[in-house]
Design goal:
13 helices, mainly alpha, Arc Repressor Mutant, subunit A, 2 domains, 63% helix
Length: 387
């Protein structure tokens, strides 16, 4: 194991020429990032998750009920042992042949069986109340950490001059505020990575999980190699759009459509400007060019830049979905749905009215809710077209 670790942490891979791990050891005069510091992220991630549970139950839920957020989930399907066995063991979306067989077996018409399967699928969807509580928690955390980041960064020289990110490297002492900022962000991403399996399931689950893995990897290696200054800039830039997105979703759940649309369009502008404008011109410029000029070429430089470019690709994907939704908002007069929506749309719950009327009703109804990063991102379509 010692041999494997020595090979993995090879100085000539991770550090610039003439820099060794000994140069990054803490001394009496100055403290530097240490790999063992990152172990703090695991108990802190658990604490953040527990705080979230308490927050959602004792703060977010009363607020949601006070705002008249719908507490009940979708209508439950009537109990039926045969259909339940098919649903759980065979398929949740039976084809026409199976529907006809079940119709003969149960002496039900096909339409009633289709309705039962829709209700049963929707039964597994989270309630609007739960989604509101999740968004309120994310908004509270993002607002706190973004405010902390801005207060910290406005006192630093590298906010205004990115070349200062590399000035004096590796002899850049670890400030307590920077250490706290890094560990809290890392802990939050760890908590997101694990809680994503129990959170509201969205269509871009795989993409968001990839985003969290890339984020945790970048945070870890940038901390260990003391490339933390540019890391703080990335934190702040990514958090700014999320503090607008989550209120947009909360307004949507409260059926404040005009406020939700306004916040969403604000989020779209902030997201696109920050992720497609500032990020490549500010962050990628300094890591691709200024870092090379200051420290020369070394293998880890390309590892970091590849991960940062992967983030940029995810930004482009989400921006496409956001622009698509913004276009529909302008053309149809409202934003109706969250692109990272649930597995099935709310308009799929019932089909007791003709389809044309059901579609009209769906367009007039508030949609449901990363990415993340997101955490979730409003993207999407009206009614049930995407399903």
């Amino acid at each position: 194991m010692a041999g494997i670790l020595a090979w993995f942490w090879n100085e000539r891979f991770w550090l610039p020429h003439n820099v060794t791990w000994a140069d990054l050891q803490s001394t009496e005069e100055a403290a530097f990032p240490q790999a063992e510091d990152l172990y703090l992220a695991f108990p802190l991630a658990f604490c953040i998750f527990m705080i979230r549970l308490l927050f959602e139950r004792f703060i977010a839920k009363p607020c949601a009920l006070g705002l008249k957020v719908q507490a009940n989930g979708p209508q439950k399907a009537q109990p039926n042992a045969i259909l339940e066995k098919v649903f759980t063991a065979i398929t949740k979306h039976p084809d026409e042949k199976r529907l006809e067989g079940l119709s003969k077996q149960l002496d039900w018409d096909v339409r009633s069986i289709q309705r039962w399967f829709r209700q049963r699928r929707n039964q597994e969807k989270p309630s609007t109340l739960r989604k509101f509580c999740e968004s309120m928690w994310r908004f509270t955390f993002y607002l706190y950490i973004f405010t902390y980041g801005v207060r910290f960064l406005k006192k630093t020289p590298w906010l205004w001059n990115t070349r200062q990110c590399w000035s004096g490297y590796p002899y850049q002492p670890l400030m307590p505020d920077l250490h706290y900022y890094y560990i809290v962000e890392l802990s939050f991403y760890w908590s997101l990575m694990f809680s994503q399996f129990i959170d509201v399931k969205r269509k871009d689950f795989g993409i968001m999980f990839t985003h969290h893995i890339v984020a945790v990897t970048l945070i870890t290696f940038s901390y260990v190699t003391n490339l933390t200054r540019v890391g703080t800039l990335i934190f702040c830039l990514h958090d700014v759009s999320d503090i607008v997105l989550e209120p947009a979703k909360m307004a949507n759940y409260c059926k404040c459509q005009k406020l939700s649309d306004l916040l969403f369009l604000t989020f779209a502008v902030v997201f696109i400007v920050s992720r497609l404008g500032i990020y490549p011109l500010w962050i990628l410029n300094t890591t691709l060019f200024e870092l090379y000029e200051a420290l020369g070429n070394f293998p880890a430089l390309w590892v970091f830049n590849v991960l940062l470019i992967v983030l940029q690709i995810l930004h482009c994907f989400w921006s496409y979905l956001i622009i698509k939704t913004a276009y529909k908002a302008i053309s149809k007069g409202k934003v109706t749905k969250d692109a990272r929506s649930d597995v099935e749309s709310s308009s799929d719950e019932e089909e007791t009215v003709p389809r044309s009327k059901a579609l009209d009703s769906a367009v007039a109804t508030n949609g449901t809710s990363s990415a993340n990063g997101t955490n979730g991102y409003l993207t999407g379509a009206t009614c049930s077209e995407e399903h």
